[in-house]
Amino acid sequence: MKTIKVVTLAVLVSAVTFVACQKDEEAMNQNLEVSKVERPYNALMYKEMIDMLEHYDKTRKPVLEDALGYEDTRINFYSIETLENYIAYVKQLSKEKGIELTGINFVSGSYPENTSHGKPGYQNIMLMPTTNINGKNIAFDPVHSQENKVKTMKEMFASYGYNWVYDSKEDYNNRFVTNSKLQKSYAKRTQTSDIESSGANWGQLHPPYDD
Predict the structure, then answer these.
(1) For residue 16, is pLDDT > 50?
(2) Nearest to 123 by CA among 111, 115, 112
(3) Is residue 2 part of a domain?
(4) pLDDT at 4 over 70
(5) Where are the alpha helices (DSSP H) in 35-122?
(6) Residue 184 located in a structural domain
(7) Is residue 47 part of a domain?
(8) Is the dihedral angle over the CA atoms 59, 62, 65, 66 positive or is it negative?
(9) Dihedral, CA of residue 147, residue 150, residue 153 and residue 156, to nearest 10
(10) Which helix (DSSP H) or strand (DSSP E) does residue 108 occupy?
(11) How many domains are there within the chain?
(12) Residue 56 placed within a domain
């Protein structure tokens, strides 16, 4: 009689476990269906891609090759993990300081001859987080921003004597106007301590091909 009770209990436990597993599997399938991602609005058609590539080939590539003496960088590669980690980092900093993170600017730069990484003379891109200031996406630094107080990249660059002119039409139109404060900061750049930023780089460039 005792053996029958044990067997009955075992069968009951197995049945409950089976039902629970089925429910877990159904829940997982439902989550997968809910999380299905649709085609992004900015996804391109192949003819659009080719039109842009060919236009670059005709209007940019020859000019750069004539000026530099070689083909400049065309591809900047970042692994998915690198991008996800960077976005998570700036999201976390922005959230901690109560600042809205609206996106990431991809900004062109080029490695100087004395670069500590990358290939001297070749173009690269830098990643800079943005926030909403007066209805515009403005590059800012969540590392040096304070609670609900934004520190823009323009302000940070100015402390080293660099004139960032891409936040507004007014700044851009006045890009050649002499600024004595910037000139003084530029003159003191070598004596100014270097500090961490929220910008990012260190992508893999092609060209050049060293292999």
Answers:
(1) no
(2) 111
(3) no
(4) no
(5) 46-59, 61-68, 80-96
(6) yes
(7) no
(8) negative
(9) -70
(10) strand 103-110
(11) 1
(12) no
Task: Report pLDDT digits (tens) over 165-175.
Answer: 999 999 999 99
pLDDT value for 116? 86
pLDDT single digits (tens) 124-177: 999 999 999 999 999 999 999 999 899 999 999 999 999 999 999 999 999 999
Residue with structure tokens 């323009």?
154
Structural domain harbouring 190: 78-202
Residue showing tokens 């075992």: 10
The pair of structure tokens assigned to 63 is 């000019």
Strand partners, 103: 130
pLDDT digits (tens, 9 = 90+) for 44-78: 999 999 999 999 999 999 999 999 999 999 999 99
Distance CA 124, CA 156 (A): 20
- Amino acid identity for residue 106 in this structure: F
The DSSP 8-state label assigned to residue 13 in this structure reads H
Bridge partners of 136, per DSSP, are 133
